[in-house]
Predict the structure.
Amino acid sequence: MLTIHDLHFNNEIVPLFDHVYNEFARDVLLQWMTDRPSSVDEIYARQAILKAFIRHDHLFRPFAYSRTEFHETHSYLKEIAAREKSIFFFSRSRRSREIGQLSNLFIFFHKIHEAWFQSLRINEFPEDFQPAILRIRQLFEDLDVQHYFEVVRTKGLDAAVMTRLTRLIRDKVGSGEVDAFWNAFFLFEACLSLAKGIVKHQFHFPTFIEEGLDIKRFYHPLIHNPVRNDIRVTETVTLITGPNMSGKSTLLKAIGLCVTLAHLGLAVPAETCELAWFDVISIAINLNDDILNGYSHFMTEVMNLKSVLLQARETRRCFAIFDELFRGTNPEDALAISNRTIHGLTQFRYSCFFISTHLHRLKESTLADKKVRTHFIECQLARNKPVFTYNLREGWSDLRIGQIIFEQEGLNDLLGGTGHPAVSHADNHLPLSNPSTPPTTILCCATSSRSPSATCGETSHFPPSTSSASPSAWHPRS
């Protein structure tokens, strides 16, 4: 079970690996990135294929073929497959067109053979992948691509050669060899595309362990100059706490992305990654109302949690992320059922659950439970203005910045002199009186649930206070 909609996988993650030049190879690429292997052995088999590609430096030299080149060759071979065997080329224009199509075929085949297949060390690829390469090479050899490319380049094909070649190609089409060639070619290009993405973004292959999670210097790949963090999880439940805007949701997305890519047999955005095999991966970060099924936000949260629990109770290993769990109900109910959920999840020893929350009253019970680990993202408060560092720390956050934001956006002034300003610095650390004094380190961890590209990047300083609510005055990084 793989529920990863909230990673925005197709729109944000797939493009990191998409370096193919035709839509058929892209279909294979998407299949690789959606059909997860059924065992750790299958994952390592995928890794072995991609590592073999990465070892071939010549595959990463600048090279590209045009969509026009591909489609002319692909369409021509499909056209031959649909022809009657008794076709004749009586007209000069018909012969000229056929010679042109054949010439384009040999130019295209020679181009990709020289760039990709000629220097390929086939013995370095896993045995079950080698037949795909052999099918490609065999067709090139049977068509004598190198020879006829030279003929096309020097003197061109004549009518007699044209007739002989079309007959040979028609036989290859009829025997299924051409279809087998294309399937192998699309697989090869898709795997090469994945390898290019891994090399370009400097991802690293994970290793699988019996239980737990240990990721060093992980980050979200869509963040410019991201802060990299470490996390080691041996407990069943990990709780992330703190106010909004400090990077919590993006941190959870980064962890979820590492786990997901690892289970697809791909490399991950981290320096090292060791993790257990999980039967179920469920990531819930941007849950909304489900209008089609008539579910409110809260009911959607409940049904998502129920789905994971049903899997866990069947002794399936589950990895799940619940961002701001039960924010869709009132604080009293949220506190009660969050307590029940957090401590109830600890019974599933071989599963791993990440939960973020703004419920400060959970602190005492969670810190007392040795099966629950708490983390926060460090935040510094300078002159009553938060400075987000995005560094992950162990512990609990007691910082609240909602009232600070409210005041700095000028809402107290806009609401008039009610005598009840919506800010109390007593709830937080006092502002620094001396600007030269180093900022105080505060326990805090959070972010909004929007796009990862808008948060969890470089250290962020809160904007100066504004007396106007004009949207142009300041756009928070959420």
User: Anything to note?
Assistant: Residues 22 and 71 are 8 Å apart (CA to CA). Residues 207-461 form a domain with the Rossmann fold fold (CATH 3.40.50.300).
